[in-house]
Design a protein that fits this description.
141 residues; mainly alpha; 6 helices; single chain
Length: 141
Amino acid sequence: MPPQERQRILEDFQRWNELSDARRRELQDAYERFQQLPPERREQIMNRFRQFQALPPDQQQRILESQERWQRLSPEERQRIRERFQQMTPEERQQLRERIDKLAPPSGGNAQGFQGSPSPPRRPPPPGFSPSGPPPLPPSR
C-alpha cells in the first residue's frame, strides 16, 4: 500500500475514534440505510458526491450554507417550497435559476451552471457530512 494511502487511512481512523459514541452510531445507521437503497439510488448519491468534491471550495461552501438554511426550515416551509417549484413551468424554473445566479458575482462557474460567490474561508464539512442534502427537486415538466 502506498504511504499516502496508509496515511489517509490512519487519519480516517483517528477522526472516527474522536467522534462520540452517539455520532458513530448515527453514522453507522446512515451507512446501513445507504446500503439498503437500490443500486441506482446509491449511484446517484455517489455521483452527486463526486460532483460536489470536484467543485471549487467557495462553491462547496455556498452549497453547505444552502443546506444549513434548508435544514433550519420547518417541514411545512420545505413542503411549500417544493409545491411552489412543482407548479412552475420549465421556463419559470429557468428564470428563477438565472435570477439566483445573478445574486452573487461569478467567480469562475463551471459546466454544471454553478456560480461562485464571495464567502468566508471554507471550513471542513462536519464528520459524516452527506452531500445529498435536501430531497432532489422534481424533474422538469
